[in-house]
């Protein structure tokens, strides 16, 4: 080969060639605002998908031993629940909808046809002898799986049939057993003969003891009224207030009778045991049956509150956009496109507190109770469609709609003003974000300044921050005025007040849709 052993040794001692050095190494630059925004949108979109009620995860059943780290895994109970009332049934196949919300419903399965044994397909004895033990075991397990009925497993499953998860999934099946159909009460299913018997016993006892005759007569009279009028308790008679001093709760959403009515019925000297039992029975009937529900409550309160909050979403958005425009022009011109992002803490705080504050301002604070005049009578137009007495009925809300509209405006203005004023957590977060954005260029320049002029630069940065804070306070003071302008001006309790935030015709029709 022309090479000696010494040449080979000399080659092994020489340093091998290295790769040429890279002249410029890539340097990770600072993220731009667009890249940060894209990243936030992507992460937020994925997070919303995971937290959505439509994000379905496959249930995993593990036969392994429980580990300590299992308790940190997200459980199915912590996930949001998809409710049937939130979906429009017409947009989904019936089988899909019923299969998801009624998994316990027994599926009607067709009768399985018995398999016919084909003798021609059977192998010879020699083939059977060639099968190993594992093959025979697999064949036996497959046959067992074919004979296994999945529906029978669910029928005999204790968790499926008897476990109550507390979500009220089985309430649809009530009514035939112990419940009451068509929205009645338990007392409405009692036989009228039993009630009449109790009334006769009460009247007999009063004739014997000559005490509280009128009071017991009224009790029996109203119990009969419960049966005749579908258990609608009638308290319109002004004499009721005179003969039943133990009645309470004349205002509010329900009218109930206190258990102390027993003390009114029993004579003071010697209580009679049978009459005590009878009075307890009468009190049970009176307590178990609510009065005629004519006040706005439950779904009515929730619906009207959400309607006003939804109506005010556009004016509030308009106000915040105007605020963001001023912030971008005066305070952070280099980040004017992101000005709305700095106001997000105030918007989040408003969204979190607007419902509770609006509900409290409308109903418990002003509109509440039944509509009764000074004589205990319900005037004409109450509860619907136009009740001239301030109470909690839909008719009263419609009659005093100008007041209702003014209350909703004042509460919305108060919430916005509270969160956009110095001292609130939302305002502090907004102020910190705007100050950082406004003083960013100044701090960057200071980093490359000489140490001799560094003290002057600190004073400049501090003064710049104070100017930004002062300017933000001046801008936020305009929130109440901007909201009033967005609602058309004239914020007063009058028929022509707040023309852009009235929604009178639509809201009156919506309010009267509740009984």
TrEMBL record:
Protein's cellular compartments: Nucleus
Source domain of life: Eukaryota
One annotated GO biological process: transcription by RNA polymerase III
Residue ranges, annotated region (Disordered): 109-151
Keywords carried by this UniProt record: Nucleus
GO cellular component, one term: RNA polymerase III complex
Pfam families given in the database record: RNA_pol_3_Rpc31 (PF11705)
Comp. bias intervals (Acidic residues): 121-132
InterPro entries for the chain: RNA_pol_III_Rpc31
Main subcellular localisation: nucleus
Similarity section: Belongs to the eukaryotic RPC7 RNA polymerase subunit family.
Protein name: DNA-directed RNA polymerase III subunit
């Amino acid at each position: 080969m022309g090479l000696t052993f010494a040449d080979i040794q000399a080659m092994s001692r020489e340093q091998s060639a290295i790769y040429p050095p890279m002249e410029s190494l890539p340097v990770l630059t600072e993220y731009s605002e667009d890249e940060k925004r894209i990243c936030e949108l992507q992460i937020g979109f994925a997070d919303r998908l995971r937290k959505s009620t439509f994000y379905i995860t496959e249930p995993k059943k593990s036969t392994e031993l429980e580990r300590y780290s299992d308790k940190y895994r997200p459980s199915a109970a912590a996930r949001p629940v998809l409710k049937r009332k939130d979906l429009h049934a017409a947009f989904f196949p019936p089988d899909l909808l019923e299969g998801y919300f009624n998994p316990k419903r027994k599926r009607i399965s067709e009768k399985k046809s018995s398999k016919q044994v084909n003798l021609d397909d059977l192998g010879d004895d020699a083939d059977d002898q060639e099968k190993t033990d594992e093959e025979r075991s697999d064949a036996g397990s497959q046959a067992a799986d074919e004979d296994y009925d999945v529906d029978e497993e669910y029928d005999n499953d204790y968790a499926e049939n008897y476990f109550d998860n507390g979500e009220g999934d089985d309430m649809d099946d009530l009514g035939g057993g112990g419940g009451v159909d068509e929205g009645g009460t338990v007392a409405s299913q009692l036989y009228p003969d039993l009630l009449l018997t109790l009334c006769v016993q009460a009247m007999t006892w009063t004739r014997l003891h000559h005490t509280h005759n009128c009071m017991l007569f009224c009790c029996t009279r109203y119990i009969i009224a419960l049966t005749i009028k579908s258990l609608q308790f009638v308290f319109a008679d002004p004499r009721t207030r005179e003969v039943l001093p133990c009645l309470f709760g004349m205002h509010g959403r329900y009218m109930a009778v206190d258990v102390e009515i027993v003390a009114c019925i029993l004579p003071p000297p010697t209580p009679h045991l049978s009459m005590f039992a009878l009075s307890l029975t009468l009190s049970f009937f009176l307590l178990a049956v609510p009065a005629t529900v004519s006040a706005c409550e439950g779904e009515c309160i929730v619906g009207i509150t959400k309607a006003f909050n939804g109506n005010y979403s556009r004016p509030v958005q308009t106000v915040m956009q105007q605020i963001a425009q001023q912030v971008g022009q005066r305070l952070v011109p280099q980040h004017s496109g992101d000005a709305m992002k700095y106001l997000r803490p105030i918007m989040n705080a408003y969204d979190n507190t607007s419902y509770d504050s609006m509900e409290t301002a409308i109903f418990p604070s002003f509109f509440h109770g039944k509509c009764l005049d000074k004589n205990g009578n319900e005037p004409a137009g109450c509860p619907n469609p136009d009740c001239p007495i301030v109470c909690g009925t839909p008719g009263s809300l419609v009659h005093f709609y100008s007041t209702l509209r003014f209350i909703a405006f004042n509460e919305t203005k108060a919430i916005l003003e509270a969160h956009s004023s110095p001292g609130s957590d939302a305002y502090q977060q907004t102020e910190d974000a705007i100050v950082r954005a406004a003083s960013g260029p100044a701090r960057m320049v200071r980093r490359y300044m000489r140490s001799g002029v560094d003290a002057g630069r600190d004073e400049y940065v501090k003064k710049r921050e104070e100017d930004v804070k002062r300017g933000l306070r001046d801008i936020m003071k305009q929130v109440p005025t901007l909201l009033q302008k967005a609602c058309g001006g004239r914020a007063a309790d009058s028929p022509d007040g707040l023309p852009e935030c009235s929604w009178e015709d639509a809201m009156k029709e919506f309010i009267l849709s509740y009984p």
